[in-house]
Amino acid sequence: MSSTTARRDTGVTGPTRARIDAKTLRTDRWWLAPLTTFVVFTGFVVFATYRAFAGDHFYVEPYMSPFFSPCIAHACAGKTTLPVIADWWRLSPALIILIFPLGFRMTCYYYRKAYYRAYWLSPPACAVAEPHGAYSGETRFPLLLNNLHRYFWYGAVVVAVFLTVETVLAFGPAEGESPGVHMGLGSLLFLANVALIWMYTLSCHSCRHITAGRLRHFSKHPVRYRLWTWVSRENARHALWAWLSLFSVAGVDFYVYLLSTGAISDPRFF
Length: 270
Hints:
Distance between the termini: 78 Å
Strand order of the largest sheet: 1-2
Number of strands: 2
Largest sheet: 2 strands, antiparallel
Number of domains: 1
Structural class: mainly alpha
Order of helices and strands: HHEEHHHHHHHH
Helix content: 40-55%
Oligomer: single chain
Strand content: under 5%
Radius of gyration: 22 Å
């Protein structure tokens, strides 16, 4: 068998694929969704990368940017109630932290669909031919790393816990205020962000599996069954929580940046 024949019998040209010569039979603007995903997600990656490497203007009392929480590096000394356990790390604190939430998002089942279509065009959309001559799935690097998703999920849960702590601290006094509970616009933004982060994290397929995915008798585990039912329901909205939390975490970081640079002031309600 020639190499040409072998290529035709595997991958995207295999015998189980539809025999259609046209690139697509669709007449709608199918390219709009992958293009939007490409523009928005690329913008987020560029923004997050810049903020992580810049490593400044991430704290203004009582707000700690979610990109830098838990802030445990040398640059965080005096800016957080958490212990600085990475005192040897002199670079941006975010370079330690972001690996976990970004790893979780990049291996997420929904985001796989998003970047498969928007970046690798595999396929660009339903019923649209892909430009690749073969398909290896997630058996080779870098897609092989997607198999680490459940482990990134554990790290994302830990980060979400620290974001919850930072949200509680966001209701504390700013500089010059008396001790006690205070609330500003930033406090509400932090609250909304951590709620969206938790919804995205807990609606994950891995969380669904952990709650009751391996049970054989739901009747013997009513609590886990209820948790599994709730996660399954929210899993249908996983894409929604993914995008909302993406915008919220970037928005809150940018808000802290504006406060830290003195561009705006934080309205305090009480």
